[in-house]
Amino acid sequence: xxxxxxxxxxxxxxxxxxxxxxxxxxxxxxxxxxxxxxxxxxxxxxxxxxxxxxxxxxxxxxxxxxxxxxxxxxxxxxxxxxxxxxxxxxxxxxxxxxxxxxxxxxxxxxxxxxxxxxxxxxxxxxxxxxxxxxxxxxxxxxxxxxxxxxxxxxxxxxxxxxxxxxxxxxxxxxxxxxxxxxxxxxxxxxxxxxxxxxxxxxxxxxxxxxxxxxxxxxxxxxxxxxxxxxxxxxxxxxxxxxxxxxxxxxxxxxxxxxxxxxxxxxxxxxxxxxxxxxxxxxxxxxxxxxxxxxxxxxxxxxxxxxx
Length: 307
Ligand SMILES: [Zn+2]
Hints:
Blueprint: H1 3-29, H2 59-63, H3 78-95, H4 107-137, H5 142-161, E1 170-171, E2 190-192, H6 194-224, H7 231-244, H8 246-269, H9 281-305
Helix pairs in contact: 1-3, 1-4, 3-4, 4-5, 4-9, 5-6, 5-7, 6-7, 7-8, 7-9, 8-9
This protein binds zinc ion.
């Protein structure tokens, strides 16, 4: 068992630090509509290009004591925090892929495990990035939300291609192996095959969420005469749904809205906000999405077991 950290966790952590560093570049530049590839990283204070040895995730920040080498301006603690957060997230995602180490895993389950772990990793990258961007700039760039939705759907298509025969079929009369007429494997009994059920179900869930939230946005605008729900928030929920499906995104939205309401109450109680204050709902939806991705499946299993 001691080999597992060496095989998966340590490389995932180091890779996570590097990708977290790139995520910081995305967070700084996407809200400003700047390219994330060019120019090279530079100090926002003195515009000095940051040398490679000063750009090592976390370590450089600690060695430079959180200041630019040239102008000594403070470097926000957001940089090491994002790097560490994504490194931990990627380590967690890699852990879910431990069964890949089993010898002679059939190709189907192998691909499904790989796709699930990759989906978890990508969703974490997008949500951590969007969380910080929404919190700091009140923007949720399409480059993350729309691209993320497409990636989520693509992963679902790959997963659908590797379903076992009749796995996840949508049946008219339910699986009853005793009768021949309308039996589980009777072609006439299958409403949607497994892959159709999975892909169409995901698209349907996204359409349902987007439609409901656009209606809410429209109703709020008509009744109150001002913007309540941002279109970026709607695209964010669509993205979470593409990755996690209907019920887990419902859990994410429930958590996000609850946390945001709690935050609003805390602000109002401390007289730091009024009913007109703009809240970073998207950031809280991201937190909800991250929690749902980790805890969602056990929570939903517990909830459905109550009935
Ligand atoms: Zn500087």
